[in-house]
Amino acid sequence: MVKWLLLTVGIVISLRTPFTSASNILIWSPTFGHSHVAFLGNIADVLTADGHNVTILTLTLDPNVTTFGNRLPAHTIRIESEENNWLQMDVKGPSLWNTPPCTGLCTRTSDLLIIAEQSYRICKALLDDDETMKKLLASKFDLVFSETLENCGPGIFQVLNIPSVVMVSALGMMPKMLEVSGLRATPSFVPLCLTPYSDEMTFFERFINFNLQMIFSTYKYKVEDQYWQLLNDRYPGFPSIESISMNKTALMMTNVHEFAESPRPTTNMIRYVGGMTIYPPKALRAQRST
């Protein structure tokens, strides 16, 4: 798996950037959760081991996630906002374990609003940090591996003049990945990632799944417009977030096994790399191995 990943990254870099012995690569790693950070940190380790110059930029959403996810040396930068209400989400409290099984959307709307608010705050905090932005711009990154869940990244990559993006997801295929890869959403057959459904849905489940797809699509454009307004106020004539993602994305990686996903259309642009956060087990001590 590691050899395959290195080959893929090498092809992307060789096609989209001038030849160099090592590339400057940015890892865009918002702290949505430990699994997200571990996935991106492992990617950073693979790139570092291959001789590339890696910088991990962590945007603090969940303050309980304090690591960068990497084991090998890398440049690390952490951005924090003055206000953070992430821990007020229901999913972060004890009520999670008392919640009955969900029948539609498995995330509360209030939690989604908190995620959106904190993501916007941390994006603004980075844009307000002139010193860090100048430092990042001076790094002249050739490539960025970016968390798919948030919408600040594409705009920042445009400001930093990063030519190529690899979208990564720790949650399987996300709606944005389908759109960028040119695949149409098929909510009548493929369940959304935040629902409990399988590909064998009842009519009522298909109806709910279809409605959620429309809601998320509408919400996506609203959120992207919010980030565009933030960036356009600073850089007049700024391109749309959608167009940046379309033009810069060279590859997509999702941390699931393709045969464990619900059946769905795919393209060569999408690579399944399930198991990226599973490290080889360490040998037991002699007294325990017997």
Automatic annotation (TrEMBL):
- Membrane-spanning intervals of the chain: none
Entry keyword Transferase = yes
Which reaction is the catalytic activity of this chain? Answer: glucuronate acceptor + UDP-alpha-D-glucuronate = acceptor beta-D-glucuronoside + UDP + H(+)
Q: Which InterPro entries match?
A: UDP-glycosyltransferase (IPR050271), UDP_glucos_trans (IPR002213)
Endpoints of the signal sequence:
1-22
Q: Which EC class is this protein assigned?
A: transferase
Q: What terms describe the molecular function in GO for this protein? A: glucuronosyltransferase activity
Q: Which UniProt keywords apply?
A: Glycosyltransferase, Signal, Transferase
Q: Which Pfam families match?
A: UDPGT (PF00201)
User: What EC number(s) has UniProt assigned to this enzyme?
Assistant: 2.4.1.17
Family, per the entry? Belongs to the UDP-glycosyltransferase family.
PANTHER family hit by this protein: EG:EG0003.4 PROTEIN-RELATED, FI06409P-RELATED
Q: What is this protein called?
A: glucuronosyltransferase
